[in-house]
Amino acid sequence: MLKTVAVIPGDDAAPEAMRPVVALLDSLNIGLHWQYPEVGEAAEARTGSPFPAAAKRTIDAADTTLFGSTSGKSGAALHYLRWGKETYANVRPCRYLPGCASPLRDPAGIDFVIVRENLEDLYVGVEGELQELAPLNLAGRTIRKPVHAIGHGRYAVKAITREGSERVVRFAFELAQKRDGRRKLTCATKHNMLRETDGLFLDVARAVAVEYPDVEFESFIVDDFACRMIREPRQFDVVVMPNQYGDILSDAAGGLVGSLGLAASGCFGADYAYFEPAHGTAPDIAGRNIINPTATILSATMMLEHLGFATHARNIEAAVARVYAGGQTLTPDQGGSASTTEFCDAVARAL
Ligand code: IPM
Ligand code: MG
């Protein structure tokens, strides 16, 4: 079965991770067909648009997209993959592999997944001058003056919907059922301050929990959760949270097991999914062939599983684990001196 993957290698150091990972997957000979939609600066220079219609068509026609981290102009493609394709559940695993440079004394057994709501919250992109709010004369619960009168500044809208919360919470419960974990779902919100928005998210989660009696449900205020995530990370299985907390805490989770270079992700919607490392483009190390490709490899294994190649995905994960356990060929962020391509070669050999 031929599967088409649209590849967007990304910016700065990201393509240096993407190229050997595509080569690694290609060497499996499982019928993956790669397409490279032109986006970002190159597309803009040639067509006038950083996300031309042809790129959109390629993404739409593909079975999935493998996306390297982007900054700047290719952000338009990321917008399309999230909001255009409605990929509402951003799945970000945090699993300790022995040999990774975790800052914890005893990181063994850390294995949880953050499910980040991917489309709503403060990321709806509605911001403006506080003065624009004067006609609404909005009085806050905490400040004494109408919000436009507290000073000269800006606002951002935080929007949480019942539908958006419900679908991501259901997704998280179903993941907890499928995963080989402890069948537990933790919800993290700031409902004590944000009673209407995060309060709604939590209310929805509690209501949906009744339908999944086989999954233990618990909830924490997100700041408390942040502390628990570091002090007792083995307590967690699947954790669901609104967009911004998930963005921040998934980077923290990457740091917990070793580095951002380990943080993989997959964004799932009703009829499309795409896969991307959770980290940024690492401009400080661009061009040096030292970016840790693990996040890209593990995002690619999530993709393989999604495409129906679960066995190949498990084999590559096992190969990555062997390379870390061996400790001979690690990238600088993990205390080694191997290059990106040497790491990928080591994974290929372990495979
Ligand atoms: C991530 C990134 C993105 C986000 C940026 C690049 C827009 O930080 O995927 O976590 O904030 O979602
Ligand atoms: Mg982020």
Q: Your description of this structure?
A:
- The structure is a single chain.
- The chain has helices at residues 14-26, 40-47, 53-61, 75-84, 162-178, 197-209, 222-231, 243-257, 294-306, 310-326, 340-350, and strands at residues 3-8, 32-35, 64-67, 89-95, 111-117, 127-129, 154-156, 184-189, 216-221, 238-241, 266-268, 273-275.
- 39% of the residues lie in helices and 16% in strands.
- α6 links the parallel β8 (184-189) and β9.
- The protein has eleven helices and twelve strands.
- It is α/β, with parallel strands linked by helices.
- 46% of the residues are buried.
- The protein has a ten-stranded mixed sheet, sandwiched between helices.
- It folds into three domains: 1-101 and 258-351, Isopropylmalate Dehydrogenase (3-Layer(aba) Sandwich), CATH 3.40.718.10; 102-109 and 158-241 and 252-257, no CATH class; 122-157, no CATH class.
- The structure holds 3-isopropylmalic acid and magnesium ion.
- 3-isopropylmalic acid (IPM) binds at residues 247, 278.
Inertia-based shape: globular
Bound small molecules, deduplicated: 3-isopropylmalic acid, magnesium ion
**At the fourth CATH level, what is the homologous superfamily of the largest domain?**
Isopropylmalate Dehydrogenase
Distance between the termini: 22 Å
Average residue pLDDT: 96
Quickly count the domains: 3
For the record, the CATH architecture of the largest domain stands as 3-Layer(aba) Sandwich
CATH C-level class of the largest domain:
Alpha Beta
Radius of gyration: 21 Å
Strand order within the widest beta sheet: 2-1-3-12-11-4-5-10-8-9
CATH domain topology of the largest domain: Isopropylmalate Dehydrogenase
Q: What is the β-strand count?
A: 12
* Largest β sheet strand count, sense and barrel closure: 10 strands, mixed
Q: Tell me the number of helical segments per DSSP (H or I, 4 or more residues long).
A: 11
Helix % is: 25-40%
- Helix-strand string: EHEHHEHEEEEHEHEHEHEEHHH
Broad structural category: alpha/beta
Q: Which segments are poorly predicted (pLDDT under 50) over 5 or more consecutive residues?
A: none
Measured by DSSP, the beta-strand proportion falls in: 15-25%
